[in-house]
Amino acid sequence: MSAETPAVSDGQFSRRRLQFRAWRGDRPFWAGLFVMLAGVPIAYFPYANLQIGHLTLAMATTAGAGSLIIGVLLVVLGFSLWFQKHVRTFAGVASILLGLVSIPVSNLGGFLIGFLLALVGGAMAVSWAPGAPPADERAYEEPRGTGGAPEGNDPDTTILKPVVGEPNDLSGTSPANGANGRHSAG
Q1: What share of the chain is helix, strand, coil (3-state, %, to 5)?
Q2: pLDDT tens digits for 136-166?
Q3: Which residues contact 143 (CB under 8 A, 6 or more apart)?
């Protein structure tokens, strides 16, 4: 090794994993994943043929196209939760409603698998709220008193003091403030 050898940096995998973690934490990731997974059994089961030996069991329903539309809409809503986080309330409510509609349309909502995933994902999407941005500690430094406690502006807070120079009448009817009985709202 020479002095010109660069320092060992984090590997590509570690860096990508941290980038994905930051991306995932900035949006309703799990809600979108559950909603997308809900669309798969709802759209798949009406078109599936189950083979039991030489017996073919078709699960086709009369509303096969309706279940396909519900499944595709749930997958699209899941992707929209990932990439357009501002539509989270609409996408959550829509996925809950589509999950409920899938019960009569699509084999009990994909044999209750898609129905439950749609309800859980939609509830997670509606309840998700973006986190508070990290506070910049250097921007505000509290003045320190003795013992590490912040110092107040007025050390004597036990006595209420009158405010000098301001009228005490806040009703809006005092001639001192120029209202003459009229309220400022009109």
Answers
A1: 55, 5, 40
A2: 655 555 555 566 666 666 666 666 666 666 6
A3: 150, 151
